[in-house]
Write a structure and sequence with these properties.
Helix content: 25-40%
Strand content: 15-25%
CATH architecture of the largest domain: 3-Layer(aba) Sandwich
Oligomer: single chain
Structural class: alpha/beta
Bound molecules: S-adenosylmethionine
Number of helices: 18
Distance between the termini: 27 Å
Number of domains: 3
Radius of gyration: 28 Å
CATH class of the largest domain: Alpha Beta
CATH superfamily of the largest domain: Vaccinia Virus protein VP39
Shape: globular
């Protein structure tokens, strides 16, 4: 497979592995009743991903660099995100925008300097952009569920070709689903652009699935349903399919000529379905006589997930889905002032993407959140169909609070007045800042709660979800693939794996992994008891 090379690639290929796992510190919880700040005496560092506090709904807005934030999300969300939509900086070189549109933002420049060193100063802006994107995409790939999709907005003239090639490398070219286009503008761009190139009316949106083998087609949107199922059947919208076939030649089979709804097939024809299925469909009311012919009524739910349903959508027209201009106007209206954000995605565009790939319970991630359009789309869809989709947003800039989160608050509560009043969607979210790393150099960060450390160690060993610990077996982290994992750790005290500790190990398992500070058992005993000893902190992996 052809791959792309650029200055600095060797430095970032495996950089995602060096990024320390940090905790996410919840600053406040917001719901229709307003914001409640996390009290300082509560666990300052709740378990990774924010903890399971009653009030926590699972919607998250994280302020910080998405490289660190995505790594922080891994222990809780690896392999669990159903849909990722990202709208990264397009790298247009336009320095004057409110959006951090290029890689010259001081925070990103600093990061680049640390990762690639002084030579990075000579890189072109395309090299820098690729260095920035590569490790972030690597972690996004890990976060996706097996049948999860990632959609990436970009612009044709700047980084589209590069992005496609690095995505082929990271997500696999076999997992490339296609490239959608969005009509982002209906106006000619400024006169200068016309002098140097073509007017671009559309922006591409790349789409990959995590694993092509898990591909099951797209869900029908409400609009698809209306287009495809215009007839009214017994139970609502359905389409009708003829179930007769010519009985000419080798297809002549008398066993396929029984009565359905009191009718035999017409002359020269036989049924396509067997008698057992016909009786079952009759019983379910899924056969009808339409225009004198027996037909099978197909309902949307009979087809969801089948390849037959791959919809026609590959282009999102401005009229139906909105433009960057309409996205901007909507944002300004919600906020009540001119935000200065110029390239806001319209909610209609993001909803149209989500409704084809998400169930009502999907987790949706946007790690270049900007003004929070993705959260707006998720909340709106939930309000419309009673769904329980969850969003996770990450935004680097300080406007994460006063634009990103503020927009989401207004959407939840409702905004505007008089004729322009828009009812709130309801819902809630937690706002997070990046906290300290789990590892303090080579040592465990003892300032963190033991529960946080346990969850981290469990993830480093299993990459599975944490949560099946047994209170009667306090050192047990859980069992995975026949192995029981024990983390025998006490703050400020050395714990040795010895005979006394063995008596505390209650889980029945094929093998055991036991973390402790020291081991006083000999090799033969460990082998006999099928125990692998791991020393804290030396043997804690750094994934
Ligand atoms: C083009 S805007 C996204 C616009 C968004 N889709 C909307 O509708 O408002 C890109 C956003 O990514 C943010 N960003 C850039 N680099 C980032 C990073 N390393 N971590 C988190 N956010 C980042 C920028 O600050 C900017 O807000």
């Amino acid at each position: 497979m052809p791959t792309l090379n650029w200055a600095g690639k060797d430095k970032v290929l495996n950089h995602h592995l060096d990024v320390p796992v940090r905790v996410l510190e919840r600053v406040y919880h917001f719901d229709e009743g307003g914001a409640r700040r996390t009290p300082p005496d509560a666990s300052r560092h709740p378990p990774l991903g924010g903890g399971q506090k009653e009030e926590s709904c699972g919607n998250m807005i994280v302020h910080g660099d998405n490289l660190a934030a995505l790594k922080a999300l891994l222990p809780r969300f690896e392999g669990r995100v159903d849909c990722i939509y990202i709208d990264p900086p397009y790298n247009t070189g336009n320095e004057g925008w409110v959006y951090n549109d290029n890689v010259n933002d001081p925070q990103i420049r600093k990061w680049l300097g640390e990762v690639v060193g002084k030579e990075g100063e000579d890189f072109s802006r395309h090299d820098k952009w690729l260095c920035m994107m590569y490790p972030r995409l690597k972690i996004l790939q890990k976060l996706l569920s097996r049948d999860g999709y990632i959609f990436l907005s970009i612009s044709f003239p700047h980084e589209e070709a590069h992005l496609r090639l690095i995505c082929n490398e990271i997500f696999g070219s076999q997992n490339f689903i296609g490239e959608l286009t969005w009509e982002s503008t209906t106006q000619p761009s400024n006169a200068g652009a016309a002098k140097f190139g073509l007017q671009q009316k559309v922006e591409p949106i790349l789409c990959y699935i995590k694993d092509r083998k898990a591909y099951h087609g797209f869900y029908l949107s409400q609009k698809d349903v209306e287009k495809k199922y215009p007839h009214l059947g017994n139970h609502g919208a359905c389409r009708f399919e003829i179930i007769e076939k010519s009985d000419a030649g080798g297809y002549k089979r008398d066993s396929m000529k029984f009565q359905i709804l009191g009718q035999y097939p017409r002359a020269g024809k036989r049924w396509q379905i067997g008698e057992d299925l016909a009786r079952e469909l009759e019983r379910m009311g899924k056969l009808e006589i339409v225009d004198g012919i027996v037909k099978r009524a197909i309902y949307p739910e009979d087809e969801v997930g089948k390849d037959a349903l791959v919809p026609f959508w590959s282009h999102f027209g401005a009229k139906e889905f909105g433009t960057a201009e309409s996205g901007k106007n909507d944002l300004n209206e919600i906020m009540g002032f001119a935000t200065g954000f110029d390239t806001v995605k319209p909610v209609g565009l993001i909803s149209a993407i989500l409704e084809h790939v998400c169930t009502k319970n999907s987790i949706v991630l946007d790690s270049f959140a900007g003004s929070g359009t993705t959260a707006h789309a998720v909340l709106k869809m939930n309000a419309e169909d009673g769904g329980n989709r969850r969003f996770i947003l990450v935004e680097l800039m300080d406007y994460a609070e006063n634009i990103t989160a503020e927009r989401v608050k207004r959407v939840i509560r409702g905004y505007g007045s008089g004729d322009k009043a828009v009812a709130g969607t309801g819902g809630n979210f937690d706002f997070f800042e990046l906290g300290p790393s789990l590892m303090d150099g080579d040592a465990l960060n003892e300032a963190l709660s033991v529960e946080t450390l346990r969850e981290y160690v469990w993830w480093t060993e299993t990459h599975a979800q944490y949560g099946n610990a047994d209170p009667k077996d306090p050192y047990l982290l859980g069992s995975h693939n026949g192995t029981a994992y024990y983390f025998c750790y006490e703050r400020g005290r050395t714990v040795a794996l010895n005979r006394a500790l063995l008596r505390k190990i209650k889980a029945k398992a094929e093998s055991y992994v036991v973390f402790a500070d020291t081991c006083l058992l000999d090799e033969a005993t460990l082998r006999r008891l099928r125990i692998t000893f791991k020393k804290i902190p030396r043997d804690i992996a750094r994934p």
